[in-house]
Amino acid sequence: MDRLGTLAQYLQKVPQVDNKKTVYAQAQRALEDLLDSIHAFFFDYESEKRTLWRLAQTGRVVQQVESFHRALDAITARCGLIVAAPTGIGPSLPRWQSRWRRMRAERLVFLRSYLDDHESVVVSNSRIRRLSDQLEVLTLLKHSVQKFDTLLTTDELKLLEHAYTFAVGFRTNSIHFDTQLNAMCLPEWFVAPYDRTKQRLKWQRAAVIVQNAPEAMNLNECFTLASIWSCLQHSHILKLYGACHVGQQRFFVVAEGTPLTRCSRDDGFPLWRALHEAAKALQYLHERRIGLSSLSCADLILFRSGDCDAIKLAGYNMKLLKSGMELLNVYGSKIGEYEDQDPVLEENTSDVSCDDVDMIYQDQVAQARPIPLGESSQKETAKRYWQAPELASLIAEGPTEESDIYALGMCVIEAFSGGNIWSDYECCHDGIPPKPAALEDTSQWNFVERMCSFNPKDRPRIVEVVASFQAFASDEQKIRTCFSGTKLRKKARLHDLNRTQAPATSVSIACTLSEVHAWCDEASESSAINYQLYERMDDIAAQLEGMDADKAVSHLPVLANLTLRFRDLVQRHVDEKPLLRLAATRHVIEMNAILHGELDVLMSRLALDRLEPSIHSWNSQQASYTEKLWKRLRVTLSTHAHLLNGGLDGNQELALLGTMLAFEVKNRSASYAIRDLELMKAALDKVEEAYQSIMPSDFCTYESRSMSAFPPWFIPPYEVVYYKHDGASQGASSAGHFGRWMNVDVVVKEVLPLEQPGKACPLSSQRGAHCTSSVNEPTEEPSRQFKNEMTVWSALKHPNVLKLLGACHMGQHQFFVCEYAAQGSVDIFLASQPGEERTMCAHRVLHEMALGLHYLHAHNVVHADLRCCNILVDAKGVVKLADFGFSSIKPGNRSGEACQWKAPECLTGEMPTFASNVYSFAMCAIEVVSGVLPFGCELSDAKSKICKGLLPPRPTNCFSDADWNLIKRMCSHDPKERITMSDVVKQL
């Protein structure tokens, strides 16, 4: 406060020179904002009266106070002041570091004496005798140490450990807590309660809302839900940024969007496309044995972004699925009891307020409770949650796939009714509302009625739902091509991830099918099941040829898409070794069933007879083929270990086989019969034993865990389809391919074997310190290094950092899957902007770049190759930092790399650091704002100037004096004199 007062007095007394008026006015406003932030922080901190809880905020206090001081430093520098005048001449402000160190030491003495006075602690912390409070304070202490370890002194860390040991000593019950703070595990998604502030509008600079957990949700339920939700990565699942499961108010931090209930009445809004995306999200959940206790259109969140809007399913009602047959058996014995009941409509009524973590947007979402249908029409503003009738029974243990289908069907009715489902309650029949006027197509309504059948056995499977909704959306798209706004406008297409192909014709379909026919025999174990699908496609193609041209032409693209997907599936399958193919048996069977279901939908739309020829009655026949395929798998898995090893090329493929088996056992167990699951576990043990026997002894010390402990980001090769002939320009370090994973457009990058592995600073670098290793030192084993780097990347979750969706670190063909940035690199994106908009867009881009880099630094990650071609822009215009400089995927020869963005010390052989990143960011800023390469195109000339400490020429009419001074501060020749990214973010 003394520093603030001194600067405020100076600004009031300083002569109002014309060329400084604007600067001083900006400084005055910045001071007022800073003062508001300081007051808000200390008001929140001092409102916590429990001393032990205040102690747990030590890291937060240190971070915030130092942040306030640095912000004040930036303001003083903007005014042309110096922090201290060594000679006593000229305007100055006192240094703050030494005084701050004394204040920290005094706080430390007080808290240490407080803990030593056991009696006073017991009295003031009597509430810690409750388990929930004990867990809260232990979690906060762990959070403070884990998040702020680089800011805290050794004495402060010891004090937190002392407090942790003290809090563990309060025996509230029989639950055992780790007595050592370092041994306690904290979930990655945890957000501390005190991170909810009312001043800021973002969470990691992304628009979010903070949703309070229902009052009925206990600590364990909140923890379980957050743990499940945080692991889900799908383009149509709402992103969970974090959650808090401790404290008086538990909450979830999620991306901000618009509920479908607010959009469904918009004229021209493509509801079927939205519902199709919701169905794909539900299918993704079912594949992971996750269901929904209830569902509403309020849980379907629309994210508007010009041409690339999308629906995302919120996960507040997620629960692990129970076996569908368990409820069917109960239902069968109680059917008479439920026949006269109506579907359950649940309503949220609890008051919910949202502060936020780094944002806050207030919304009211309520806790669900069943109510009679007649009440809902009087409460139009309440959120309604649909639940299948069988779940209303006290006997029901949880959601099933069938109950989710029912709830989704009711959402369809709700969406097409504009939310006013029960306006004519007397017209309700068969337990579901009447047909909405907006749902004109009779076949569509008939399908929705099937979804809402009272008997779960009569409801379609999710595969059929997805295929049918896709067909309905296709019809809708012919009229409504825009997915955002209320006006109909043609959608400007971005680059399509699907392979560029000629218009679908009977000839192109026939050529694709001929390729499939040739490959079917190459995978003998699955030839029967593949031939069955091939014959169906071939017959439908023949019938299309004989149809009226006008009728056939609109359906040819659908069949062409199905045949291409089938070809990709078969081709990828036959390229693998027989043993690896068998490990993918479950995936092959499920994908065949999906394609069969989509063929059924196509035949229904074409009004083709599914009884003649008999090949279209595929269910019973496929069951026979599937059983033979399972039998083949069982025989193979029961063989001796050396036979398993003999069918593969070396330890890499053996490791891949083991990891694939472990993946199936752990993540896809619900798709297997118990006996098959036991066989797979036994085979996994054999593979693991064989693998350990052929590996060198030093590997065993590294891979101490079993293959079952594969990383959470692992993706088996058979779940990704990518097109090797289609290059994706996704950064400078390696070539990528367009592909699909979980029905999502992605970019897949293969890790090629290197003769001489490239060098880069390790991705995770404590404090960004200079690396001491020489660039000529040998690197660690490439496969291990790739795994470590993927683990670090998978933990990075920020809107301005390219998201890793998964990777395969085993086998000869390692790869990783990342999100697709549709608008390419930032330089190309800005070049496409109109002249008037480019400047404004460039400053927004620059700010987002700074936020992403600041996030990396906050997580001890150094970007080893920061330049504009490694900074991407997604379809929504959001900037994504990419290609962090992984040494496992960088080319070995880097001598020809462009040097315009490199810091002087990096050109002399030193490894990248936080400080060198700041320099590179400044060079990117020059290119982004001016559109001109820093130092031009001549590499040798640029290198010479950089090493001499020279700056690029200042672009004309691009930078103000204050902005160019910021560039200079980022480009100091001495890395120690460069400002931090935290300061850069504040000044931008």
What is the structural class? alpha+beta
Number of helices: 34
Please, what is the CATH homologous superfamily of the largest domain?
Answer: Transferase(Phosphotransferase) domain 1
The span between the termini is 24 Å
The average pLDDT is 75
The radius of gyration over CA amounts to 31 Å
Strand order of the largest sheet: 12-13-14-16-15
The CATH architecture of the largest domain: Orthogonal Bundle
CATH fold category name of the largest domain? Transferase(Phosphotransferase), domain 1
Topology, number of strands: 18
Strand content: 5-15%
Oligomeric category: single chain
Number of domains: 4
How does the major sheet shape up? 5 strands, antiparallel
**Low-confidence region ranges:** 85-92, 323-382, 424-429, 481-502, 729-733, 755-779, 891-896
The gross shape turns out to be: globular
Please give a structural write-up.
It is a single chain. The strands form six sheets. The protein has a five-stranded antiparallel beta sheet with strand order 12-13-14-16-15. Strands 1-3-2 form a three-stranded antiparallel beta sheet, covered by helices on one side. Strands 4-6-7 form a three-stranded antiparallel beta sheet. It folds into four domains: 2-181, no CATH class; 208-326 and 338-477, Orthogonal Bundle (Transferase(Phosphotransferase), domain 1), CATH 1.10.510; 506-686, no CATH class; 711-988, Transferase(Phosphotransferase) domain 1 (Transferase(Phosphotransferase), domain 1, Orthogonal Bundle). It is α+β, with helices and mostly antiparallel strands and 988 residues long. It is globular, with a radius of gyration of 31 Å. 47% of the residues lie in helices and 9% in strands. The longest helix has 29 residues, at 18-46. The chain has 34 helices and 18 strands. It starts with a helix and ends with a helix. A hairpin with a 6-residue loop joins strand 2 (240-244) and strand 3.
